[in-house]
Amino acid sequence: MSAVPRIFPESLTGFAAAVYESAGLSSGDAHLVADTLVQADLWGHQSHGVLRLGWYLDRLRNRVMTPVTTPEFVVDAGAIAVIDGHDGVGHVLTALAAREAIRRAKAHGIGAVGVRMSNHFGTCMYYTLMGARAGCVMLLTSNGGPAMAPWGGRRKIIGTNPWSIAAPAGSRAPFVVDMANTGVARGKIYLARNKRMPIPLGWAINSAGAPTTDPQEAIDGIILPMAEHKGYAIAAMVDMLSGVLTGSGFLSAVHSPYKTAEKSNCGHLMIALDIQAFQPLAEFNARMEQFIAEIKAVPLATGFEEVFYPGEIESRNDARNRKEGIELPGDTLADLERIARETGLESKLSLS
């Protein structure tokens, strides 16, 4: 049995960037999108990694995501801004929103930037960590296409609607939370399908309303909210912030990145808090180190070897995968090879 190849991130990023340049993105924008995908794989979140390379490419080919992003500031009012993305590349628009939120927070103590008519952007934490590295606490919310039903209902109209919060943590890796409000991110179900593995009971129900362990049945059915009615309520709140408040689409007007021939209409809200406006950054960092130390000092439950704080596992995965290379599922590798053939970029793809 041959060993599974490990791909080094620089090679994978170069290939993904070349694919997006071939679809009309500028070199800088193509590299940004590629970096978000490969970074997700480095963190161990393969549901949001190069698994999605072809989905974004199809959206560009179908012109539901425009390759040349032309953001328009429809509100520009000191600490607050609203950007109309005009169906541009979600990664490019969200990175712009992050930079704007940070810039405004440094001037006013807080910066809040809404984005309307955007597209899916990968992992939330890629952008909230931009704020943490700049000495801010950063919050990002985003809505998505229907994946779950409102609690008590049987028709899906609410997205997984992820959110993230990140903060610096002194000498430690940043504290960062990134989660969907379903019991599992939809991308993890697609990943299970690629790996030809069943999903756990409790993740989803099929179109007939019965529990299922079949990833395809889950995709065709309804993904269940985390913590029952609480997950539904948080998802609805995120949709209000990301869609209603920003002037973007909401609920069933938003379409997922998996529907590659439909405009997304999704929205995002980015809020940055300048830590220096609250207390000296050095003091905050010292307090965060104390905060994390107390968490990690808790006695272990049976079956556990260590207590992790949010963001710690991703930081360790990143360090290991940068050294050893990224191991991808066979179906994902096959899809990369297909894309390389279709784009004539076989020479750019090195799978060893």
Summarize the structure.
Helices cover 40% and strands 17% of the residues. By secondary structure, the protein is an alpha+beta fold.
Describe this structure in words.
With 352 residues, the protein is α+β, with helices and mostly antiparallel strands. 40% of the residues lie in helices and 17% in strands. A seven-stranded mixed sheet has the order 2-3-4-10-5-6-7, with helices on both faces. A two-stranded antiparallel ribbon has the order 1-11. A hairpin with a 2-residue loop joins strand 2 and strand 3. Helix 1 packs antiparallel against helix 2, helix 2 crosses helix 10 and helix 4 runs parallel beside helix 5. The longest helix has 19 residues. It is globular, with a radius of gyration of 20 Å.
